[in-house]
Design brief:
- The chain has two domains: 139 residues, 3-Layer(aba) Sandwich (Rossmann fold), CATH 3.40.50; 163 residues, Rossmann fold (3-Layer(aba) Sandwich).
- 38% of the residues lie in helices and 23% in strands.
- The chain has ten helices and twelve strands.
- A ten-stranded mixed β-sheet has the order 3-2-1-4-5-12-11-6-7-10, sandwiched between helices.
- The longest helix has 22 residues.
């Protein structure tokens, strides 16, 4: 079955950036692009629909504008444009059967309500069985490359210019093949280095500091570093062309990933497939990263 890169669009500035990022990713993967726009009929059309247009007509125009913009940049890319009626969440989830990757827009909304209820993008992330990439408004091809001294990022003159790093947040207590492989493959496709970040905490046991029990913080750090290297060793052998840097520190994973994202073209995090009392959700680390990281974020579901 032919696999697509699928972009969900809604006419917002975020979705236009989404479609162009998805198009570049489709080119990297040698896959066609599918652009999906879902619309719902309302007894009274919303104010966003111009006078003289039906909701269906306006939805079709919105989809056509996005597709035309992408085709202007990628004339040789195969594009499947789909206008569907119904819930955006259900429409996007239904599109993942033959999709390698689903790409959506993100406004980076924060707060408890965003965590529990969330936007369309967050609800799709929480339920998708495929990796989902969220892209902010204003992201352009130039943002995937390093900033040169004295000027902002720009598209390189030669394809040999490396991308910014791909950053992977990895918990070695629960390593996941799907997550690690996605990050290595993303780095390979971008021709980028892979930076793997693992953070840990040292809890106290009955009031005793485990740093002293294990012989000090340096020894704890060394143990964590060895464990991370061992976890990555088979993947480094499988992807010898990918340059890998391991970063291990004590602290909170979200903070470390947000800090590293400033020089990244993509941040990759995992989402465990599970249910909770408040329904399916994305987990605290993925939630924090999606709300505070400016570069695209890939959320990879795993068991």
């Amino acid at each position: 079955m032919l696999r697509h890169v699928t972009a969900g669009v809604d006419g917002s500035v975020e979705s236009l950036a989404t479609a162009h990022w998805a198009a570049r990713e489709a080119v990297r993967r040698g896959a066609p692009l599918r652009v999906v726009h879902a619309w719902k009929w309302h007894p009274r059309p919303p104010a966003s629909v111009p006078m003289g247009n039906s909701e269906h007509e306006w939805a079709q125009q919105t989809l056509n504008q996005v597709v035309d913009s992408v085709r202007a940049q990628h004339p040789d890319l195969g594009i499947d444009a789909r206008l569907v009626s119904g819930s955006p969440v259900e429409a996007l989830l239904a599109s993942t059967d033959d999709t390698e990757l689903l790409v959506l827009g993100s406004r980076g909304l924060g707060g408890l309500a965003g965590f529990l209820v969330g936007s369309v993008s967050q609800r799709v992330v929480a339920r998708s069985v495929r990796p989902v990439v969220l892209v902010r408004a204003g992201r352009a091809a130039a943002d995937e490359y390093p900033t040169t001294p004295g000027r902002a990022s720009s598209v390189p003159e030669t394809p040999a210019t490396p991308y910014r790093d791909v950053v992977l947040g990895l918990d070695i207590r629960h390593p996941c093949d799907e997550l690690i492989e996605f990050a290595f493959e993303a780095a390979r496709l971008h021709g980028a280095a892979l930076r793997v970040i693992h953070t840990f905490s040292v809890p106290s046991a009955e009031g005793t500091d485990l740093h002293s029990v294990t012989g000090g913080g340096a020894e704890v750090l060394a143990v964590q570093e060895r464990a991370l290297v061992a976890t990555l060793r088979p993947w480094c052998a499988k992807y010898p062309e990918v340059s890998v840097t391991e970063t291990v520190s004590e602290g909170r994973p979200a903070g470390a990933l947000v800090h590293a994202s400033s020089e990244a073209c993509l941040v990759v995090v995992g989402r465990r497939i599970r249910e909770s009392r408040v329904g399916t959700h994305i987990g605290p680390v993925a939630h924090a990263v999606l709300h505070h990281v400016a570069c695209p974020v890939a959320v990879v579901p795993h068991v």
